[in-house]
Specification:
Length: 457
């Protein structure tokens, strides 16, 4: 908790001193001045992450100071403290660009959370600006966006094995970008001008897959009206990408194994085998080792395709790439549609970072495409995001309340935090107690206060 420099602006020296001490004990570096003019002069000489101003000061009120700072320093968040909780005062504060509006007597827990949210939003805006700059930087592999350790490892492995003809198995959840990795391997090996033949083994009926891969001769079956070479022979020195190979039938696995061992294919209906020179890359979202143990996938084929394995991490394991990917998709969609690229708003960005992305990169791209379609202004906001992501905002609203006039009791703040931690750990009470810094008995007592009917075990 804490960290950062705060400027308190209050002509009540005693009140300002007490507040300064309370915030200093929470780890903040705090400056104090007694007027709006002094605040402007102080900020000219010192950096600050936030300004906390009392509403009723003369000759410049706290709201007037915040309005001036909103013009002079638009990235600097401000919070107004007031003894007047009228609606008119709240509206004036909002119009002045104030981040939050806190009524006296000050609840230090609520104030601290509001400060952390304000500073966090500024930090997020800076990160978004950095991301926009980084998105324009040329990447080692243009199609693979990210700077996380996981994606750097993928890029490094691609460069190491690109010039080899070894069979590669790409593993990862659906939507992680396995085909992008396969294409990157193809392009990095200097095969860009050669064919890249891809087939989804789970999307083609088993009785047609053999013909698609190995080809057929005219008259081999009812609809075979002409001879067709098939993907493997037709790749002509390029790459054959067998997506979702874990869905392939055992019968086809036997035939594919022989083709990979002999480097020759026999078209359906032919007595002759044809050599091929294509590199074979396979991909799966299944655990093939478990499939081998369950006799659903041939062990000999598994080792034949798994000469080099590239594991693509899920998006939840590369959270530092989320905003960079979002900006990449914004730029990509804008270029494709001829529409100006909208900026990603800080609150929308916060929800993108909080969401777990079960659909991985594919889901993120769909989310951004939807947001771009709905956004009529120059900034993507929470309203433009899919409902499943907006629900995060509805489930976990800012703890200072939806209205600037709402202040929560310490008990309600604690209850909300306990609920949120429990949700985050899937109801695991031992883990929740560890995160909250209390023992299990204390957690059970708090849960009983939240819901007297809840079981205490």
């Amino acid at each position: 908790m804490g960290g950062g420099r705060i400027l308190i602006v209050d002509d009540d020296v005693s009140c300002a001193g007490e507040l300064r001490g309370a915030l200093a004990r929470r780890g903040y570096v705090v400056g104090v001045v007694a007027s709006g003019a002094d605040a402007l002069a102080w900020l000219h000489e010192h950096p600050a992450e936030l300004v906390l101003a009392h509403a009723r000061m003369a000759p410049m009120s706290g709201v007037e100071l915040c309005a001036e700072l909103h013009v002079q320093r638009p990235g600097l968040p401000t919070i107004v403290v007031t003894g007047d909780s009228s609606l008119e005062g709240a509206v004036a504060a909002i119009r002045a660009g104030v981040f939050d509006y806190i009524a006296k007597p000050i609840d230090l827990v609520a104030l601290t959370i509001a400060i952390e949210r304000a500073i966090g939003q500024v930090t997020l805006r800076r990160e978004l600006a950095r991301v926009r700059e980084q998105a324009a930087v040329k990447r080692p592999i243009a199609s693979l966006v990210g700077t996380s350790a996981g994606i750097r490892g993928v890029v490094e492995l691609i460069h190491k094995v690109a010039d080899s003809d070894a069979t590669v198995l790409i593993v990862g959840e659906s939507g992680t970008g396995k085909e992008l990795v396969a294409r990157a391997l193809h392009d990095s090996a200097g095969r860009r001008a050669l064919p890249f033949a891809a087939i989804n083994c789970g999307a083609v009926p088993a009785h047609l897959l053999e013909s698609e891969l190995f080809g057929h001769v005219k008259g081999a079956f009812t609809d075979a009206q002409r001879t067709r070479p098939g993907l493997i022979a037709g790749a002509s020195g390029g790459t054959v990408f067998l997506d979702e190979i874990g869905e392939m039938s055992l019968e086809m696995q036997v035939k594919l194994l022989r083709v990979l061992q002999e480097r020759r294919v026999r078209p359906v209906g032919s007595d002759e085998e044809v050599p091929f020179a294509a590199r074979v890359i396979a991909a799966t979202n299944r655990d093939l080792e478990s499939a081998v143990a369950a006799h659903r996938f041939r062990e000999d084929l598994y080792y034949r395709i798994n000469v080099v394995q590239i594991r693509v991490p899920p998006l939840r394991a590369r959270a530092s790439d989320i905003l960079l990917l979002a900006q990449h998709f914004i730029d990509k969609i804008a270029a494709r549609s001829g529409k100006p690229a909208a900026a990603l708003g800080a609150e929308a960005a916060r929800l993108l970072l909080e969401y777990t992305w079960p659909g991985n990169v594919r889901e993120l791209e769909n989310c951004i495409e939807r947001a771009m379609a709905l956004c009529s202004g120059d900034e993507i906001e929470i309203a433009h995001l899919p409902d499943r992501i907006k629900q995060l905002h509805e489930t976990h609203p800012p703890v200072t309340g939806a209205s600037p006039l709402e202040l929560l009791s310490l008990a309600e703040l604690e209850h909300r935090h306990v609920r949120r931690v429990l949700e985050a750990v899937g109801g695991n009470k031992t883990m929740a107690a560890t995160i909250l810094g209390i023992d299990r008995r204390s957690l059970y007592r708090r849960l009983a206060e939240l819901d007297p009917a809840s079981p205490q075990s």
